[in-house]
Amino acid sequence: MGRVTTTLKAIVVSGVFPNLSSVAPCLDPILTGGSVIPRTSPDISRHLLHWGFWHAAKYIYKVEMWDVRFPMNSQGIRPRLRIVGVVILAAWIGISALFGLLKPIKNGCTMTYMYPTYIPISVTDDATSGRYGLYLYHEGWRKIDFKEHLSKLSGVPVLFIPGNAGSYKQVRSVAAESDRAFQGGPFERTFYQEASLFPGGGADTDSANYEFPTRYSNRLDWFAVDLEGEHSAMDGRILEEHTDYVVYAIHRILDQYKESHDTREREGAAASSNLPHNVILVGHSMGGFVARAAAVHPCLRKSAVQTILTLSSPHQSPPLALQPSLGHYFAQVNREWKKGYEVQTSPGGSYVSDPLLSGVVVVSISGGYNDYQVRSKLESLDGIVPSSHGFMISSTSMKNVWLSMEHQAILWCNQLVVQVSHTLLSLVDSKSGQSFSDRQTRLWILTRMLQSALAQSFNGMTPMKVSHELPMLASKGSESQISSTCVLDWRDDALDRDLYIQTSTVTILAMDGRRRWLDTELLGSNGKNHFIFVTNLAPCSGVRLHLWPEKEKSNSNQPVCERVVEVTSKMVLIPAGPAPKQSEPGSQTEQAPPSAVLMLGPEDMQGFRFLTISVAPREAVSGKPPVAVSMAVGQFFNPKEGAMEVSSQSMLLSTYWQKEIFLMEDHPLAYNLSFAMSLGLLPITLSLKTAGCGINTFGLPDGETGDLDKDKLCKLRCFPPVALAWDSASGLHVFPNLYSETIVIDSSPALRSSQSSEKTTVMLLVDPHCSYTASVHVSASAMSTRYVLIYGPQIVGFSFVVILYALMRQANQWDHKLSVPPLLSAVDYNLEFPSPFLLLAAFTLLGSLFYPFLVGQPIPPLTSFTVVSLICYLLANAIICVLVIFSKLVFQASALVHTTVKSRCQALERNYSLAFLRWFSILASSFVCLKAIRILKLNTTIVMTLVAVTLVSFVHPALGLFVLLASHALSCHNSMCCIMTASRRKESVDQKNEADRKTRHPSNRQEPLSGELSEKSFVETQADIFNHRHGLLILHLLAALMFVPSLAAWFQRIGTGQSFPWFGDSALCVGVIFHGILNARPESSILRSFPSLAGHQLRPQHIYLFAGFHCVLSGLDLAPYKVFYAIAALGYISLTLKISQLNRNDLRFRTKSRIHRN
């Protein structure tokens, strides 16, 4: 405590706390534990409260922990308030995100089992070099003869392409289920509403030309490419090589079918099917992008690829957009796809042929919010594939799936692979035995098999439209026409007596065989002109709904029964939770969850007077046993009464205080919650607790009226709630059996490319007989996890912005004849509010929207975009601060060790008894004196440049950047060692002067003055070199880290035949090296010789400012690899200026060196 007391008193006396200087003598009672402040100093408490005790503790921590023994400006490593604030913010978000990422994910998938056998396909092309392989999958536990099996190939070829570090054996799940699906036959037909090709739900013109088969006509032959588990998501060159091999594999598969066909002909066997002319491609992760890249490959045979299905595959940009070649290859392939849908014309403009990709259909299946590796925004096909040729669908809204799954789970999730298997088998034409050649037919089948009508019916929570063709169809008069939507005919005596409902809510708890009549005019009055109906009864076989006109008001001469419209087939299937079990009829303990929903608006019921709900009798109409527990609830309601908007302020406050919503009994069955901010950024935990269910418990025996009994009664009467979350970007997400669930959607709001509203709408289907208490709570861990996943690339891009702005600050200080500030001080200065923070951050972000505004492109919501981007900028500052502090500590520790060891060795050398050390020193000196070594020492920069450029151009870019980093680190280390050595020399001089002062020799008292100034000047010069080189080190360290994933992939391929790096990567990294070499010292930075433009001298700080703005745009576009363009441009500008300076023999900037300033 004594040292702390002395330290704080020294701080006060030295002027660190100028407001407390006058009260320094009064600090002793406080620092020594005194509890009473002297009355003679009444301002002490006020000053202490003003600065805060934590502020004093911060400076104590600075002096005690960051104290250095040389007079270098220590503000660069002082933990200021702004620095501490951003670091704490980053630590809180990082720890919360890590907790959310490590938290186990609830997975509703069931496992898939198989008996796999992999048959190798012989490779005859020398271009493959034997690195990759091709296999045919066979399902079965019996051993087979490979050659005989290949000779019988006659199915539909499907090629599976694994993703990053994937295996060809990952094909086993979907291939095994395809074999079972072929043997078991198609799904049983249902009568739910089907998805439409048209967003408006119009009639499908091609549906009349195709009917789903009752049995599949041909099996699927699954092939898989073995890509050796290479990391294709980390290196663009690997991705190109995978594409080349996939093209070869497609040709090899088609040739194998030709060989098998010829073999059967030679053996006299009859051909069982036609030869395939194209291969269906199924790719997982990066394999999906490889499939698209193969479709536009110049060596691919014409029409060899017609159908592509991707699973959790990025299409817009790579998930790790760090390497320039990777981003360039994505952009190149996407450009080719956009050109592929353009009509081919001659130079004169005349028609030549149809678009090259006119027959290709692409379907992208995303894993939803549980897929942490690839976000749905990257899996979108917008701007690449038109809606007439493909679509993206999330597994959360996929028919018969309704689950979000992890990146790898999408390969084995049984619900999904079964649906995919039946979908691909449905593409087989029964006439040809191969997939349909007509693109529209294939797209229609894919839409019907994968998409649910729920996603189209509830886009924005609007009622589904009753097709206008239905009244025309029903008005033709025949009874078969009326019941054609269901096909199943009920017996005339199947229905018991009719019931007439007088309330706006109707409830059905049993299959009683009755028809219920609802007067639409009477029950739909008072604004309740919308009708919703939920049930677990199957349409047609369990329940049927009809609209009846009023006889007196009809102008038609046809009987009323012939003008009835059946709307049963407008019921939409929704996922249902597990149904309650019962040992015998009537023994259930809770209500069944709904499995279908129907919504009708006033325009749908216009012209009709009655709505009837007909329930089948207990006996099975379709020949199947009825459901164990029956339920159906219908209601006329007013949508405005069941709507509530949750503001962004309420959502943020709910992180600490839950927001509660109380739903009274007789509330609307469909309750809409509109959240002002997207749940993709602020996931909520929505809890529903049953408060009452309208059951009077009075008169029951004692002990039977407790809460437990009430809960049992409410569960028996009220069906489990269902939540439907809809977002314009990611689609529909369904949460059945909702009592407490974290609702999150996989959208990416507040981005520069966001073009839609950020609101998320959640529709709650809740039983109107019961009252509920709903609580909304924003999960901090889920929010942090989503933030890191969505805006991680933006933070990476902004990290370059921070360091470039810091270099700008250093250059500006040097131009004003001041010392180069430490890097941390430059970062801290740029965070000062309002200036320069607003100028460098806020105004730059708003300026990035100027060009889209001028060209008329949609711009994102300004408030959320600015706030989110500023948080990303602050997090980037925190990352840079941590790197700076850590690296400076490393340099200080290494310099301390170096100088200490050197001084000890020099002391030992003076001891003549240690002859070995003297001999070793002489030997080392003779080695250093060699001519070759002397040449290398005199030309260190040239040698380092040649080595770095050679490694970048012929081995790997990261290795060349590491050489540049070693040069920066060595320079920083030498400067730090010089500073420490000078500091120790100054301490020894000070001690000698102090000794001389005590012996009272005045003549020696003034001698150290000039030496002190000389040492001070030298230390300042070394500090300038260190601070400048330290900034370049951090900048180029970030650039080198961008290539670390690619380097890991490069090491994996050692010994398997390496290829030269991509030319673009090498060229950009060479520019980075030139920037580091030609601007290594502050006094000789070549950027200072930039010529004047329009009479204005362009200084280095201006160049760094422009480079920083380019990096801002790169980060906002989620393409951090584009920062290399700016840094490389700095390097090539420096090289051009250097060559120009050498040609003019310009020595101007050699005289500007301020090495010794006295």
Automatic annotation (TrEMBL):
<keyword id="KW-0256">Endoplasmic reticulum</keyword>
<feature type="transmembrane region" description="Helical">
    <location>
        <begin position="1123"/>
        <end position="1140"/>
    </location>
</feature>
<feature type="transmembrane region" description="Helical">
    <location>
        <begin position="1032"/>
        <end position="1050"/>
    </location>
</feature>
<feature type="transmembrane region" description="Helical">
    <location>
        <begin position="81"/>
        <end position="102"/>
    </location>
</feature>
<dbReference type="Pfam" id="PF07819">
    <property type="entry name" value="PGAP1"/>
</dbReference>
<feature type="transmembrane region" description="Helical">
    <location>
        <begin position="837"/>
        <end position="855"/>
    </location>
</feature>
<feature type="transmembrane region" description="Helical">
    <location>
        <begin position="942"/>
        <end position="966"/>
    </location>
</feature>
<feature type="transmembrane region" description="Helical">
    <location>
        <begin position="912"/>
        <end position="936"/>
    </location>
</feature>
<feature type="transmembrane region" description="Helical">
    <location>
        <begin position="867"/>
        <end position="891"/>
    </location>
</feature>
<keyword id="KW-0472">Membrane</keyword>
<keyword id="KW-0653">Protein transport</keyword>
<keyword id="KW-0378">Hydrolase</keyword>
<protein>
    <recommendedName>
        <fullName>GPI inositol-deacylase</fullName>
        <ecNumber>3.1.-.-</ecNumber>
    </recommendedName>
</protein>
<feature type="region of interest" description="Disordered">
    <location>
        <begin position="989"/>
        <end position="1012"/>
    </location>
</feature>
<feature type="transmembrane region" description="Helical">
    <location>
        <begin position="788"/>
        <end position="808"/>
    </location>
</feature>
<dbReference type="GO" id="GO:0015031">
    <property type="term" value="P:protein transport"/>
</dbReference>
<comment type="similarity">
    <text>Belongs to the GPI inositol-deacylase family.</text>
</comment>
<keyword id="KW-0813">Transport</keyword>
<dbReference type="GO" id="GO:0005789">
    <property type="term" value="C:endoplasmic reticulum membrane"/>
</dbReference>
<dbReference type="GO" id="GO:0016788">
    <property type="term" value="F:hydrolase activity, acting on ester bonds"/>
</dbReference>
<comment type="function">
    <text>Involved in inositol deacylation of GPI-anchored proteins which plays important roles in the quality control and ER-associated degradation of GPI-anchored proteins.</text>
</comment>
<keyword id="KW-1133">Transmembrane helix</keyword>
<keyword id="KW-0812">Transmembrane</keyword>
<dbReference type="InterPro" id="IPR012908">
    <property type="entry name" value="PGAP1-ab_dom-like"/>
</dbReference>
<dbReference type="InterPro" id="IPR029058">
    <property type="entry name" value="AB_hydrolase_fold"/>
</dbReference>
<feature type="domain" description="GPI inositol-deacylase PGAP1-like alpha/beta">
    <location>
        <begin position="153"/>
        <end position="426"/>
    </location>
</feature>
